[in-house]
Automatic annotation (TrEMBL), chains A, B:
Protein's recorded name: Metalloregulator ArsR/SmtB family transcription factor
Pfam families cross-referenced by the UniProt entry: HTH_20
CDD domains reported for this sequence: HTH_ARSR
Signal peptide span: none
Membrane-spanning segments: none
Organism listed in the record: Streptomyces chisholmiae
Domain HTH arsR-type per the UniProt entry, residue ranges: 4-99
Length: 127, 127
DNA sequence: GCAACCGGTAGGAATCTCCCTACCCATGTG
DNA sequence: CACATGGGTAGGGAGATTCCTACCGGTTGC
């Protein structure tokens, strides 16, 4: 049980998968705009039964995008933005690409890099 | 074929879903670092058969994260970062949330570090 | 206590994902 | 022309996703 501040790499998959659903993105938007809300308020926003919303909340909770607080018989879910910060961090190295991309310039650069690639082998993983 | 520069809202789903696979994120990383590459070079990086890699490339191509160029009998795939810019744009309204929280954490850490002597031990704060 | 309310779990059907093995077409090269 | 190389498509199987209808355990109010 030692994982003080590190984030397991499996988390990134779960966060992106969670964000792939429009319902779940809408839940995050709702909580961002209105703050913590109980389930029945969240569920009222969607054309779907409460158990399905509950499942979506479970997915968001499991990947750390939500926190849960018990208030009597209600459970309030609130946005937890840290995983989104990690997504932003993952995007960082790509920023320069969309910044400088105003023509076929990067295609030329790509060809150049392609030509002069030395032999560093073996890590094509992301992190 | 009827949306030259506009972005249908359905695209966001596809982009996040594409990014949910570690294989596809690794493809993007590879193309970012080495520029455009033919399929057999990309496929050599993964412990999977070429048709599967081909499917992954099709997914990335379909959501606009890749461009395809024919060179003889090879097809070169290159990174197309625009959809990632849209992801970054989607993240923007959340930035303030993790900034303020990071600020609070920062203050706590600074206090801890600054205050080397254990005057009062607050051990209830790891996670 | 008893009924209404909040919200999670069980389990099932339709659909999607991800990998595989075959197979096919196109482009080069002897 | 014959054949190797590059790479897409077909279709199938195991497992995950997403919705549903039931159902059940806690809280709150009469």
């Amino acid at each position: 049980m030692a994982s003080p501040t590190t984030d397991p790499p499996v988390r990134q998959d779960a966060v992106f998968a969670a964000l792939a659903s429009p319902v779940r993105r809408a839940v995050l938007t709702l909580l961002r705009e209105r703050g913590a809300q109980p389930v029945h308020v969240i569920a009222a926003e969607f054309a779907m039964r409460r158990p399905s919303v509950s499942e979506h909340l479970k997915v968001l909770l499991a990947c750390g995008l939500l926190t849960e607080t018990r208030h009597g018989r209600e459970r309030h879910y609130a946005l937890r933005p840290e995983p989104l910060r990690e997504v932003a961090a993952w995007l960082t190295p790509y920023e320069q690409f969309w910044r400088q991309r105003l023509g076929a310039l990067d295609a030329l650069l790509a060809e150049d890099l392609d030509d002069g690639a030395p032999g560093e082998e073996g890590d094509a993983r992301d992190r």
